[in-house]
């Protein structure tokens, strides 16, 4: 049991410390007030999500007077770092929001509780089985998806329409997309899209359109140097033609919509997940619309409904039962669903989704409609990526930088990437 | 306390070589020293030495933060030196950064400190204004400002016509270095404090001897300021080798474009916290410690010939 | 170079040139700050995209949003927390670092050389490498999610930077001072408190100012150790306006950073004048 040996290490490291330091001076936050069970619950997000989450949690506490929930949140990058430190220090919160890419690592590292142990408190029957399966590692359910999102071609409606180029449509191929980008560049004088070459996510959609995948079922690499060379050659050519953004703009992507070429008004469209795409609406005068991702040449869809966030319970939690109840409430409770809306993506609980969707307004409405248009057409999501993927995502963008600044050929960069990926996945 | 003795004219009357004159109180003073040191000893043991020992141990392991560390001997080190081209690129980038940032920042800080010493009116205003950028740290907002000012079509591009800096591999490191240089407030304040500590009598004496401004600078200011100059040099060099925040800020944590701002510590962070190879990151940290240690040792060695301590009365 | 002003003609000239030079340099130096201020008043679509210094219209709502605080925690609470941490850190650093520095600079004891070298070495290890071991220590002590991990280390002189700084200043003091004190019958403690400490005031003020500012801006440590939002600081809170996975609020984030800047500006303005009085007023001149 790896978890135990980790603890031995931690304890022996700390034992030395304890000898040296006076053991007194406690100020521990763990002590419960008035016999209440105290749960710690963390997530990442913005103030709006925080506000809704607080309201939902308050409702939960009302229903369970014996449980007190302490919540905390930060932005995504900060959150990842903080959670990793907490987990490594043996101090993971009872309930934690997790990303697709974190699950494998946290599960195999012994941080997460096998949720089957709490089957009574945490119901999963109303969740689409394909989505639910994404929270499994080696057949064990470690996390439950909360919401779903999908990738989209998000575009400046006014600019695209004015150009006269046909709008994105369901089932369009990558070649048709490329032609559209060339046409947009010609007509509008600015690149049609941000260069997708740097995005592992876009590459995955492209791969899936050809019936391949980023990772094999057993966590190996699902594609070859040739595949990646073709992808990067494809985007490299478009970049040289000016159909997608130049390296000097692409390199400035930092995850926020504001720092994308579309957000700055220097490109007509972008690839993004549907939820953050709402950010463009405030930046672009004529508003934005969501189009489907390009498919493979034979119409195989590459995009999929991705669980946007998961909830997991700490394996060390002394109150696993209460923690499971909280997870259950956040995912399955109708009133909680009303409060949370689509702040963590469109709800995965089918009942909650049917109840919540008609109530959505604004951009949430746009997202819900977009997802409805894809319903039934997509294939099941892949299982959670192996832990090495965390490193590879940045390597992917880094290696493509070498291509777009013309320091390496697509093949050289692809060879670099695959070598590193294989080493990463082995370890 | 009526000492007006001027240390620059070393009066060695009461020199106590090796403290030999005070045989009796010596033990008591040794005890006193440990009393003064006790908080430091406690902190250094528990909060510094212990974590350092752990990280040294981790550098010989494969440790992904989640599973227990697995002993791999020297593998992290050999991998770093022989199989990781990005590692060597980060070393080169860091050396270039040190060579750019340290001299520029120290020169600017000293220049402004000297200028401020001559200013009579508005001293407080100037001091505060020059320090103002350093109040910010490399926060996220200053990162965004920097990326705007040094972007295509940003202020610098408009003035110099160079294109953006933050998005061109040949220029980006300079933008990072300038962020550090811009925040020269800390060394400046230390220089100012050092200048304040120089007894005015020394200048008076020098002026009486007929020394001009330049002469006074060379024979009074520089030697009297040398401990502080040395401090700034050592610390800025150490900090420059460890530069993280400005590079992180300017490149949004990526070290781009095309790895041109992927400095050593940023790569270390990337390995340790993004890629979860904490063993490898620890090995990187210890190599850096040894490298900085060597550089610092050289600086200390040379300091004997140019740093002047009034308390020691001679060089 | 002090201008030992013997009133000569070129002196006025030089003074004008000096001021002109300083002001020109300031113009360049303060430009990014002006940008920061201006951006805090830009409407959402200009915060990042616009490369003009001035906003097209003033968006004061950035400030009202920022002033609402984050996650039901008011700005005043956040401010109070920041002040508490920074204040504690200043007290701790000034006390503990000057004590240790005195021992290193003025007292003789066995292992002084090696310990000093070790102290300098502790500055050389990147803190990312010791982050997790330190976290484990504090977690085992039950001090995570309290302010202790942020303040306690300062009382234990863990910031060797400041120890070294004060050492350098103390070594600059003539040894005769303490010898005179010793002849007057002062032990090491008396001579530390009544002779050496007052003379080191510029270094102590420097330590206080830097500690305050650096602690205030130390996002990372605060992020790792603080859990409850009502323990959060201004520096932590302003980051929570930005989240790449959802909609960010860069405008309020800039407004919040201007708000967070005010206390350190005030702190600096209040204490910078003490940097001036070095020897002149500290008793050496007698």
From TrEMBL, chain C:
Please give, as recorded in its UniProt entry, the membrane topology of this protein: Multi-pass membrane protein
Transmembrane helix as UniProt keyword: yes
Q: Gene Ontology cellular component?
A: plasma membrane
Coiled coil ranges (UniProt) are: none
State if Transmembrane helix is listed as a keyword.
yes
Q: Name one Pfam family in it.
A: BPD_transp_1
| Primary location | membrane
Q: Where in the cell is it found?
A: Cell membrane
Query: Which BP terms does GO give this entry?
Result: transmembrane transport
Query: Which regions span the lipid bilayer?
Result: 16-38, 83-104, 116-138, 150-170, 191-216, 249-271
Provide this UniProt record's keywords sorted from A to Z.
Answer: Cell membrane, Membrane, Transmembrane, Transmembrane helix, Transport
The family classification in the record reads: Belongs to the binding-protein-dependent transport system permease family.
Instruction: List the protein's name.
Output: Sugar ABC transporter permease
Which species does the entry assign this protein to?
A: Streptomyces mutabilis
């Amino acid at each position: 049991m790896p978890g135990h040996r980790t603890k031995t290490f931690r304890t022996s490291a700390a034992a030395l410390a304890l000898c040296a330091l006076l053991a007194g001076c406690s100020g521990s936050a763990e002590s419960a007030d008035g016999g209440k069970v105290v749960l710690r619950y963390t997530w990442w997000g913005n103030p709006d999500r925080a506000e809704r989450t607080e309201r939902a949690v308050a409702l939960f506490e009302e229903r369970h007077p014996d449980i007190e929930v302490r919540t905390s949140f930060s932005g995504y990058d900060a959150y990842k770092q903080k959670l990793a430190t907490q987990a490594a220090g043996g101090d993971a919160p009872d309930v934690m929001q997790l990303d697709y890419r974190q699950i494998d690592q946290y599960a195999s590292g012994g941080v997460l509780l096998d949720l089957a142990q709490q089957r009574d408190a945490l119901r999963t029957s109303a969740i689409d089985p394909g989505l639910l399966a994404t929270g499994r590692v080696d057949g064990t359910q470690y996390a439950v998806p909360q919401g779903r999102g999908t990738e989209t071609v998000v575009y400046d409606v006014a600019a695209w329409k004015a150009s006269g180029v046909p709008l994105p449509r369901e089932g369009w191929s990558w070649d048709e997309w490329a032609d559209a980008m060339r046409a947009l560049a010609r007509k509008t004088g600015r690149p049609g899209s941000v260069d997708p070459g740097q995005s592992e996510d876009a590459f995955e959609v492209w791969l899936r359109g050809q019936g391949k995948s980023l990772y094999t079922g057993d966590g190996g690499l699902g594609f070859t140097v040739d595949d990646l060379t073709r992808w990067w050659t494809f985007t490299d050519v478009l970049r040289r033609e000016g159909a997608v953004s130049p390296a000097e703009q692409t390199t400035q992507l930092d995850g926020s919509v504001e720092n994308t070429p579309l957000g700055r008004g220097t490109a007509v469209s972008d690839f993004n997940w549907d939820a953050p795409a709402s950010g463009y609406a405030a930046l672009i005068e004529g508003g934005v619309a969501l189009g489907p991702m390009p498919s493979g040449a034979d119409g195989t869809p590459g995009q999929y409904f991705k669980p946007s966030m998961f909830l997991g319970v700490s394996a060390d939690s002394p109150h696993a039962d209460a923690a499971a109840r909280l997870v259950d409430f956040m995912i399955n409770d109708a009133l909680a669903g009303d409060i949370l809306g689509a702040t963590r993506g469109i709800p995965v609980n089918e009942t909650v989704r049917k109840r919540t969707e008609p109530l959505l307004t604004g951009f949430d409405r746009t997202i819900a409609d977009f997802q409805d248009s894809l319903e039934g057409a997509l294939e099941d999501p892949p299982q959670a990526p192996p832990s090495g993927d965390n490193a590879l995502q940045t390597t992917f963008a880094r290696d493509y930088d070498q291509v777009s600044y013309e320091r390496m050929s697509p093949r050289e960069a692809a060879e670099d990437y695959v070598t590193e990926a294989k080493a990463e996945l082995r370890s | 306390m009526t000492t007006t003795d001027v240390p620059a004219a070393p009066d060695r009357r009461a020199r106590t070589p090796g403290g030999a004159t005070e045989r009796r109180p010596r033990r008591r003073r040794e005890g006193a020293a440990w009393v003064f040191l006790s908080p430091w000893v406690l902190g250094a043991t528990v909060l510094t030495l212990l974590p350092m020992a752990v990280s040294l141990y981790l550098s010989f392991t494969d440790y992904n933060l989640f599973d227990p560390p697995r002993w791999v001997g020297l593998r992290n080190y050999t991998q770093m030196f022989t199989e990781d081209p990005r590692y060597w690129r980060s070393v080169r980038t860091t050396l270039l950064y040190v060579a750019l940032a340290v001299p520029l920042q120290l020169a600017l800080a000293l220049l402004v400190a000297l200028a401020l010493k001559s200013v009579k009116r508005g001293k407080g205003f100037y001091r505060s204004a020059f320090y103002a950028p350093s109040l910010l740290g490399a926060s996220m907002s200053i990162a965004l400002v920097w990326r705007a000012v040094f972007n295509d079509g940003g202020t610098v591009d408009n003035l110099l016509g160079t294109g953006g800096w933050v998005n061109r591999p040949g220029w980006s490191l300079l933008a990072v270095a300038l962020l550090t240089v811009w925040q020269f407030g800390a060394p400046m304040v230390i220089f100012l404090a050092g200048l304040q500590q120089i007894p005015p009598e020394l200048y008076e004496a020098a002026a009486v001897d007929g020394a001009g401004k330049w002469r006074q600078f060379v024979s009074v200011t520089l030697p009297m300021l040398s401990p502080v100059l040395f401090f700034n040099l050592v610390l800025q060099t150490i900090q420059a080798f460890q530069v993280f925040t400005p590079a992180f800020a300017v490149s949004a944590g990526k070290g781009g474009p095309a790895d041109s701002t992927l400095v050593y510590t940023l790569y270390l962070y990337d390995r340790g916290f993004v890629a979860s190879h904490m063993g490898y990151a620890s090995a990187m940290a210890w190599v850096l410690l040894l490298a900085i240690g060597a550089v610092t040792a050289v600086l200390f060695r040379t300091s004997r010939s140019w740093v002047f301590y009034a308390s020691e009365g001679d060089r | 170079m002090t201008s030992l002003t013997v009133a000569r003609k070129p002196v006025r000239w030089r003074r004008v040139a000096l001021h002109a030079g300083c002001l020109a340099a300031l113009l360049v130096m303060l430009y990014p700050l002006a940008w920061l201020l201006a951006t805090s008043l830009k409407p959402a679509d200009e915060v990042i995209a616009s490369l003009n210094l001035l906003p097209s219209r003033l968006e004061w709502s950035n400030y009202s949003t920022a002033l609402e605080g984050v996650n039901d925690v008011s700005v005043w609470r956040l401010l109070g927390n920041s002040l508490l941490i920074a204040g504690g850190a200043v007290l701790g650093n000034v006390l503990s670092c000057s004590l240790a520095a005195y021992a290193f600079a003025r007292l003789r004891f066995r292992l002084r050389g090696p310990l000093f070298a070790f102290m300098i070495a502790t500055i050389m290890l990147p803190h990312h490498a010791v982050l997790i071991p330190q976290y484990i220590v504090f977690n085992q002590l039950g001090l995570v999610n309290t302010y202790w991990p942020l303040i306690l280390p300062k009382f234990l002189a863990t910031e060797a930077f400041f120890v070294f700084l004060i050492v350098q200043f103390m070594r600059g003091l003539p040894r005769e001072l303490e010898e005179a004190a010793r002849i007057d019958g002062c032990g090491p403690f008396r001579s530390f408190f009544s002779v050496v400490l007052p003379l080191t005031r510029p270094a102590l003020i420097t330590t206080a100012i830097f500690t305050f500012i650096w602690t205030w801006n130390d996002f990372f440590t605060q992020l790792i150790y603080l859990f409850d939002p009502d323990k959060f600081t201004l520096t932590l809170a302003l980051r929570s306006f930005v989240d790449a996975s959802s909609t960010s609020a860069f405008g309020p984030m800039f407004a919040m950073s201007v708000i967070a800047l005010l206390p350190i500006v005030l702190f600096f303005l209040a204490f910078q004048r003490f940097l001036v009085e070095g020897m002149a007023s500290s008793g050496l001149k007698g």
